[in-house]
Fold:
Amino acid sequence: MRGAAAITLRVAAAWLLTYVLAVSLAELAPGPPAVRAARASGSLPPEDARDPAVRAAIVARTAAELGLDGGAGERLGRAATRALTFDLGVAWRDRRPVADVVGPGLAATGLRAALATALAVVVGVAIGLGAAARHGPCGAVMGAAIALPLTVPPMWWCQLALSAGQPDAAASAALAVLVLALAPAAVVAAHVRAQAEEVLASPLAPALAARGMARARLLWVHTAKLIAAGLAPLAATAAGYVLAASAVVERALAVPGAGRTLADAAAHGDVPVVAALAAVAAAAVALVAGLARAAARRLDPRLEARA
Amino acid sequence: MTVRRPGRAIAWLWLVTCALGAVGARLVASDRPLVLSRDGERSWLLALDDGGPRGDELRASLGPDDWVLWPPIAHDPVEVRAGGSLQLVAPPSASHLLGTDDRGRDVAARLVHGARASLGAALLAGVLALALAVAVALLAIGAGGVVRGAVLAGADVVATAPSVLLVIAVGGLTGLRGLGAIALLVAVPRAADTARVLVAELEAILVRPYVEAARAVGASPLRVLVRHALPLTAPLLATATALTAASAVLSEAALGYLGLGVPPPTPSWGELMAQAGRHELRWWLSVPAGLAITLTAAALLRVARR
Structure:
């Protein structure tokens, strides 16, 4: 129960701090926010337009509509209130509520990210344990293959896959999960391999073998259990990577999602949408990190004692 | 002489080749000549000049006794009528070894000049991350107590921030774009990650007997840290810098792909991949750029492995 409260507190802090930090950063951008908001929606005439009064009127109306009037401190106060009440305001670009802009994409990206992270853990653990069990050229080849996905940009995987033919919607969704899982799986595999080799070289391995335990059982049951807790610190990094790579993969495979929404909003300087998605990403990473830490403590009681 | 670690040697060879190509991009890919002999007078390295005759205009003006030595790729990376006529997304040919892009620009020339953006981001991010990590670690150890705890807790949070997401978000919020912004925002989370490890490493070194001896003869805490402890962490810092550089190469490519990288018409490898996505995956746009990114990131990771 105490653990759940701590995780909730961390997620709430990540959400609030990131949202306020994002809005504060936006204050550093050149030009008043109302001018940038009007420009983002395409409603602002050029600066050399014949009637500057029209331009001033549009800026004033935008400021009033979007709550961008007043000083920077006032605007930051409003942003903090919005973050606390989960009322994220209106998107600058198309003047729809931010929740309506980011909501549909978030569900798709969240599902894809969860599936990709789960796939990365399962595949990474299997490959890492397999590589640790093999010696000689086979192990060396597996070791080299593990590092490969870390060096290939995700859009290239997508382009290589698309060159074989245009997939349908379901195949695109599956391909997106697969591409997102590749790099985290490589990190998990490399970590598991190193940890498993340590366990196999420890006195535990010959002791269990002397008692008649099969090597497969030693590897897939005992070693896997011993290294499971060590995977927890990778979870937050993997979640962060998957969310970031979503922007690229969703664009490359033309699938809807929050990553594409973020990249489009950033390109158009749509501050409320970018701030909301940044806060969601920070909260998601904090949630995954908290859950992974709790799971690690459950798996390895020594961590609980140390905490 | 035998090379004990051929993988590492090949990685260094690739990186040095790329770096030389990036530094001397104008000597490798330009529509201005390396040597021009006209009316008995020779002009050298015109490719490095911004003015003067170029491309087809120069070819047409040559007399019978004049001669020209062109760079290996005789095209400018931003020239849209490379080769005289406008050839959009043309496949590889004798005049364009890797074809042309959607503006008719030579892909090979853009690939060579694109190395500047990738390696520039890598170098800048590596140096920034190194400086930040060392500064943060020295601050944490030097101040100790509450400051150390706060710095390390902050580093824990910042280290989990994904760099691509950070660049996209900060760019969208502040309008900050370009190579410097990419390098800085890639460097910050990597520096935080390195600082955490560096603090642990330095604290382990500071309890060694020779450090005690240095203290005993009156060395100040700063001198002990900088002169006696920090040099021992050089292998760790070298590895972290190479990893940061690899991360910067991949991040710059991803941002170029999303149209949030270096501003056009500056060439970048990610921008070539974005064009491949827009034009039914023409292989001459995607394969060379993809290979360049992959090989550079792989070489940096190989160099990082001790």
